[in-house]
Amino acid sequence: MIVIITANHIFNKVTTTLVFGAEVDMRVKAGDSITLYSDCVIPLGSFIVWWRNCSHEHQPSLFIDSSKIFNEKFPRFSFVPNSSRNSYDLHITNVSVSDEGVYYCAKRESIISKDVNGIIHEKSEYEYGNKTTRLSVLGEKTFFLLFMLICFVLTN
């Protein structure tokens, strides 16, 4: 079980979400590109969102939805259509240490309702996937040492 804490800075609200399922550990060299695979099925009328929670003390959580991706607020991040799962994977180019963290996706649906006074309200509901991905970025020295270790193990 993985506990995910998200903060909504607009409403000063913190939500704790329990995500059950596997955690995939991905390691990539700084400067490389990587695709994180979604296990969320997105039906017509729904949207995909991605979160990143960080273990860094000064690194804020990241919330990426389609409106932010398509408005280019995250130039190194893009959604890649995955027709086999009817979803969108997350592609990150030029990965850096600031991208480290636990990533997970969710299906977002907008719920529109009208209260007794006739005022229309919109609320988002999220259905989380069962998989999280822990992204670690290897610096050049770390990557070189890991490469040397693998070479040593393979030759002995």
UniProtKB/TrEMBL annotation:
<dbReference type="InterPro" id="IPR013783">
    <property type="entry name" value="Ig-like_fold"/>
</dbReference>
<dbReference type="InterPro" id="IPR052051">
    <property type="entry name" value="TCR_complex_component"/>
</dbReference>
<keyword id="KW-0732">Signal</keyword>
<dbReference type="Pfam" id="PF07686">
    <property type="entry name" value="V-set"/>
</dbReference>
<keyword id="KW-1015">Disulfide bond</keyword>
<keyword id="KW-0472">Membrane</keyword>
<dbReference type="InterPro" id="IPR036179">
    <property type="entry name" value="Ig-like_dom_sf"/>
</dbReference>
<dbReference type="InterPro" id="IPR013106">
    <property type="entry name" value="Ig_V-set"/>
</dbReference>
<protein>
    <recommendedName>
        <fullName>Immunoglobulin domain-containing protein</fullName>
    </recommendedName>
</protein>
<dbReference type="GO" id="GO:0002376">
    <property type="term" value="P:immune system process"/>
</dbReference>
<dbReference type="GO" id="GO:0005886">
    <property type="term" value="C:plasma membrane"/>
</dbReference>
<feature type="domain" description="Immunoglobulin">
    <location>
        <begin position="23"/>
        <end position="138"/>
    </location>
</feature>
<keyword id="KW-0391">Immunity</keyword>
<dbReference type="InterPro" id="IPR003599">
    <property type="entry name" value="Ig_sub"/>
</dbReference>
<keyword id="KW-1003">Cell membrane</keyword>
<dbReference type="GO" id="GO:0009617">
    <property type="term" value="P:response to bacterium"/>
</dbReference>
<keyword id="KW-0325">Glycoprotein</keyword>
